[in-house]
Design a protein that fits this description.
Layout lengths: L1 E10 L3 H8 L5 H4 L3 E9 L5 E10 L2 E10 L6 E9 L2 E12 L5 E11 L5 H24 L1
Antiparallel strand pairs: 1-7, 2-3, 3-4, 4-5, 5-6, 6-7
Helix pairs in contact: 1-3
């Protein structure tokens, strides 16, 4: 069953800097606690990563998934769709990045998850919380440091 989560946060940095950190996938293991390894599998004509494989800690084990990124609305939006995953059927999402009045970045994170294996609701909620924590709070810590 599909689960969706949407969170919003203001980060004290320019939207351009936030976008730069978000698209520097090879550095995710430096700041995203659950991301253990990243491989850029394909780049576009502008040398931007378009297909990226992640290995992450999840549910006490290692999981891997490959995402395909869409830059068509960049730098205001970074979106992705899962192309492969060992425990997920779908892991699609986006970061919408807008400039706040003070020049900060107002970021809305949206994620749709469909797991291949059923999990109790409390485990799903805990996982969603962990994902959004990494997606926004760890991002904010990295960008504002």
């Amino acid at each position: 069953m599909e689960e969706q989560v949407t969170e919003r946060m203001v980060i004290r940095a320019s939207p351009a800097h936030c976008f730069q950190v978000l698209t520097d996938f090879e550095r995710y293991p430096e700041w995203a606690a659950d991301i253990k390894a990243v491989t850029v599998d394909e780049r576009d004509d502008e040398d931007r990563p378009v297909e990226v494989t992640f290995r992450a800690a999840a549910f006490g084990r290692s999981t891997s998934y490959t995402l395909r990124y869409d830059y068509s609305d960049a730098p205001g939006r970074l979106s992705w769709q899962q192309v492969r995953g060992d425990v997920t059927r779908r892991l699609d999402g986006s970061y919408d990045i807008e400039a706040a009045d003070d020049g900060s970045a107002d970021i809305t994170y949206h994620l749709v998850v469909d797991l291949k294996v059923p999990l109790p609701v409390f485990v799903k909620r805990r996982a969603e919380g962990r994902i959004t924590y990494t997606a926004l709070k760890e991002l904010r810590a990295r960008v504002e440091s």
